[in-house]
Amino acid sequence: MLLLFLGCMTTIPLDGFDIHPPMYSAIGFGTVVLFNIASFGHISGAHMNPSVTLSALLWGNLTLPLGIAYVIAQCLGAIVGYGLLVAVSPVNLIEECICMTTPHPNHAVYQAIIVEIILSLALGFINCSVWDPVNKEKVDGIPLRLGFTIVALSLAGGPLTGASMNPARSLAPALWTGNWSQHWIYWVGPLIGGALAPIIYKLMWLKKEKPYV
């Protein structure tokens, strides 16, 4: 809920109704992720994202029923968060389609999907590194690492696809505005990236304990 309420708040054009520079949204979403992980990470893992939950499921951190419950909660929370922002915003978010994630007009569909896959794959990698048993004692900087990762990936991919990396984040504005144009990209890309991350990480970097003879 907070991800959409606070994150999308940074996209509201208030200064003469001009659109803010891309860094506003990137820093906004990144720092909200930082806050949520620092506040709730020890309770639920603070996934906020079906792509992250899929990575955790394939990593072995979650059972399937719990993973499904997480995704439902993430989508409902995002919808409620955006709805609250609609209620308090001085700008008509629905009419202006504020905080919508849409591909660049010159992007082909396959290009937008590839961008979202790579961004979500990168996000998945850093999550896998956090879950890696080798790093189990290195927990103090997790909120900063993940928050600044979101900032970096958003700055890189924002101008191209909106850098969603999160189906729930894209679902809420689409549902409230009724604008479903190319929305499916923001499910396919992040979920593929989220699925690939733990598979590749385990194959390439996860150290397996050797059995004692």
Describe this structure in words.
The protein has 213 residues and is mainly α. The protein is 68% helix and 0% strand. It is built from nine helices and no strands. Helix 3 packs across helix 6 (109-131).
Describe the secondary-structure layout.
Layout (H helix, E strand, L loop, with lengths): L1 H8 L12 H23 L5 H10 L4 H25 L4 H4 L12 H23 L10 H20 L5 H11 L7 H20 L9
Helix pairs in contact: 1-2, 1-4, 2-7, 3-4, 3-6, 3-9, 4-8, 6-7, 6-9
Pfam families: MIP
Keywords: Membrane, Signal, Transmembrane, Transmembrane helix, Transport
GO molecular function: channel activity
Low-confidence stretches: none
CATH class: Mainly Alpha
- What would you call the shape? globular
CATH superfamily: Glycerol uptake facilitator protein
CATH architecture verdict: Up-down Bundle
Rg from C-alpha positions? Answer: 17 Å
Cα distance spanning the termini: 51 Å
Mean pLDDT comes to: 88
Q: Please work out how many helical segments DSSP would assign.
A: 9
DSSP E strands, number = 0
Helix proportion range: 55-70%
Keywords for this entry:
mainly alpha, 213 residues, single chain, 68% helix
Short description:
The protein has helices spanning 2-9, 22-44, 50-59, 64-88, 93-96, 109-131, 142-161, 167-177, 185-204. With 213 residues, it is mostly helical. α2 packs across α7 and α3 (50-59) packs across α6.
